[in-house]
Give the backbone structure.
Amino acid sequence: MSKSSISEHVQPVYCALPFKRKVLIIIIVTLAGFLGPVSGNIYVPILPHLERVFSVSTSVINGTVSVFMVVFAIAPLFWASWADYGGRKTLYLIPLIIFIISNILLSSVPANIVALYILRISQAFGASSVMSVGAGTIADIIEPKHRAKAISIFMWGPQLGPVLGPILSLIPWRWSFAFLAFFGAFVYLLIMFLLPETLRYLVGNCEGYTGYFVKPKLFQEKIVEGYPKPPKPSLKVYWKLIKFKPVLLSSVNAGLLFASFYGLMVTFAHVLEDYKFSRVQVSVSYICPGISLILGSTIGGWLSDKQEKKIPEHRFSLQIIGLIISMCGIIGYAWTAYKHVHVASVFVFTFLSGFGMTWVFVSNTTYLTECSTNQPATNVAIGNFMRNLAAAICTAIINPILKKTGFGWCLTGLGFLNLVSIGFVVVLVKYGPKWRSEYK
């Protein structure tokens, strides 16, 4: 066989960018992914303090967390569908401008609860695109057999929120938002000048790029042929994906798990205050669940790629382990905190709950990028929607439930939600391949 006939059968590389360029892209989208979660977590440790600053009740100040999470859940559905259709880079640059302006205003307007609600909504709207669009960028440049490891690194951004957010909350709360404005501007410049467009429908496998710097542009024209055209964003497209059982079940699975973990997170500061922790000690204590998220993501991502074996559902077998770890952590936290056992035990169980949760999330997010290949950002956005909506609902209702059922039983109920998630995992392992083969 001639060399020319051999070359005709050689498959092009999945992504032509050199390894160092891929690493740079992952670093940039990871930094961008940090913005939304740190905006939420910079806020949670000082909720008791903000109650006094704004002269409102616990339920009212918790409501500012809920509206942030609701918007953070819904807005990516809009951003991600257009990122899958018209390009990734545009859907970084436009929302981040909104985020930067919101933080400038949060750092400067008078302390008014109505203004706080409005600006937290716009802040969430601006920061919300990155998680789903970032996952789409990863799917563009990293082939499936290595994708979970890359996504586990990308998730360091969201997971560093619980680590650095509480530390940043030690400075005056207005300066916290000023920091977010400055950091958002820095990330914006990185995206503008160093992040290439990666949507495969527009640029293929990126073989047309040379060098590290890119010419700033808001929209990318199509420069390749032969890649399937993604469907134009519409309610019909979303409804089709939401009805697609692999996307629906894996998204609900993540939502239930995140609701249980977020119930722990919004009570953590109050629990530590009962142990007579100072505000500084409370803020620093959030490093514990933050580190658990990073470790769980990293280990879970590495093992998930080991399990993939050409069939995406193979990733789910590891999720049962993570769900059991998280459930044990939440239930252990519930009763050690309620019985006022030594605070070290509270930290141990908090660590376990975060480790198990993010162990599950990395394989879940990777699976969403694989189960319908031309809409990875949209699939992840649906997963984020379920997850953040569940967190918002949990934040809104947990205080009344705590008063009615007591701390121990309330958190135990949240922990047992993981049993439902285990059921979803079993169903997906059994029927997921069949459902994906039938999807058109």
Summary: Residues 1-9 have pLDDT under 50 and may be disordered. DSSP finds 19 helices and no strands in the chain. Residues 13-215+227-432 form a domain with the Growth Hormone; Chain: A; fold (CATH 1.20.1250.20).
